[in-house]
Design a protein that fits this description.
The protein is an alpha/beta fold. It has seven helices and six strands; from the N terminus they run E-H-E-H-E-H-E-H-H-H-H-E-E. The protein has a six-stranded mixed β-sheet, sandwiched between helices. A hairpin with a 6-residue loop joins strand 5 and strand 6. The chain is globular, with a radius of gyration of 15 Å. It starts with a strand and ends with a strand.
Length: about 210
Amino acid sequence: MRRSVVVVPSAPMLLPEYTGRTDAVADLRSCAVEVLAAAVPDAGSVVLVVATDREQRGTRPPLGERVGRHLAGLAGLPVAEVVVVPWDAPVDRCVAAGEALAASHPEASVVVVADGSARRGEKAPGHLDERAFAVDEALVAALRAADPEALLALDPALCADLLVHGRAPLQVAAGVLGRLDGPGRARCEALLTEDPFGVLHVVARLTLP
C-alpha cells in the first residue's frame, strides 16, 4: 500500500457540538472522511499533525486535534500519535518535526489538519485582506504539485498576519515528504477547496511511492 499525506480542515463546525440545526459543512465532512478512508484502506493507524490554537482557551486539546480525531474516527481509523507544533513555529522547526516523524513512523499515513487564510472576506474571522488570495493560491498550488519546497516557501510572518492556521502543520508535512521521497515523487490524487465563511478549507490527498 502506498503511503499518504492527507490534508483536512480544522473548521469547528466539523465537530458535532458546533453543527447546529443546519449542517453547513456536511459535504466538506463527507469529502474529508472519504479521502481519509481511501488513503488508509486497510484501516491502518494514522499520525495527526496539528497546530496549537492561536489563542489558548482552557485546557482542551487544540481544535485541530479534536477535529482530526473526529474525522479519523468517522473513517474508522485509529490515531497512533498526535504531533503538535506551535501555530507560529519557524520553518526549520517544522521541517525537523516532519523529518523526525518520517523516521519514527515511516509506514504511517500522515493526516495534516490545516486551513488557509481566515481573511478572505468582510465576514471572515479576520475580516478581508486582499493579500490572502495570493497566499492561498500559492498554498493550493503547492499541494496540487505535491511540492514540499513550495510549501516551505510560505512566509511565517505573512501567514500569521493572514491567519493561515495551517502553515506550520503543512511545513511539517513538507519535512515528511522531503525525508521519505525527496522532491518530485509524490502525487496529488485528490484536492477540494472552498471558502464559504471567508476561511479557505482544503481537503487533499498526496500519495508517496
